[in-house]
Amino acid sequence: xxxxxxxxxxxxxxxxxxxxxxxxxxxxxxxxxLKGVKIGECKEKWDKDYxxxxxxxxxxxxxxxxxxxxxxxxxxxxxxxxxxxxxxxxAASEKNHECFLSEDEKYYLRSLGDDPRKDISNFQQLFPVLxxxxxxxxxxxxxxxxxxxxxVGSAGVQLWTxxxxxxxxxxxxxxxxxVVLFSPKDALNLYLVGDKSEVIDIENPDYSKYPLFKNVxxxxxxxxxxxxxxIPALWFHNVTSLDFGVAVNIFWQHLxxxxxxxxxxxxxxxxxxxxxxxxxxxxxxxxxxxxxxxYKDFYARRIISRIQxxxxxxx
Length: 315
Hints:
Blueprint: E1 6-9, E2 12-13, H1 18-25, E3 32-34, H2 42-45, H3 48-55, E4 59-65, E5 78-83, H4 84-91, E6 106-110, H5 123-126, H6 128-131, E7 145-153, E8 158-162, E9 167-174, E10 177-182, E11 192-193, E12 196-197, E13 217-223, E14 228-231, E15 236-241, E16 245-252, H7 272-288, H8 293-311
Parallel strand pairs: 1-13, 2-3
Antiparallel strand pairs: 3-14, 4-5, 4-6, 6-7, 7-16, 8-15, 9-14, 9-16, 10-13, 10-15, 11-12
């Protein structure tokens, strides 16, 4: 069944520089495709052979899945470690005789810090030679920088819909990507488990299982090599690699640094105040269990009404 929700093309801006982004695009707090941004020599240099030569045998942890639609909730993939050059060769090939699960398995790399439990991904430190080829746009204050992530994936890989709690730009260097985004105001229509949506097949959703998904507004864009996508914090995004592709994500803190969990190395833990509010809600739900069913229903509705009147945006 085809989706029936409203579809909108993400706005595109040409010849974007730092001043245009900060004064015109960033204050709107909506996704934008930025063209003509200076990103250095990476677009011309980062083909498969160059990546293999420059990074060589550096060990990297990757996702491997027999299904191109990767599902983080149900974990339909496994983690494996490969030398970077072997990984790139496999990811760029349609079929692999040397494989973990099947000849047409899909590969995806999201760079991690040296200690993934404690260290953020810093592309410049992890891949210093590649970093010389990339010019990071000066769209944010340097002291708000959080992380930089190298992403490399097979053609066809589709990543689960999720949100991040920090602003970021996705710099598409090699290959094309299709990106579908949903507004934070569609949170109730996306069947969330933590920061991720249960709706994996967004092109052909099971409306009997996810009826509210019909209500979402679908924002879409195609990223070509050299394009930069601005993704504001809390905007849900689902990314499909149309070709073997290479991209770099840059995350920065839109809120004051003290608002974030200092133990967060991925940029996906809710701000401290939001986490505290969720904990209070959980305690309220537990307290209501002591009441008869009709009382529990009545006071739950009152609590929801109070949250709506005090916390929901007027827009």
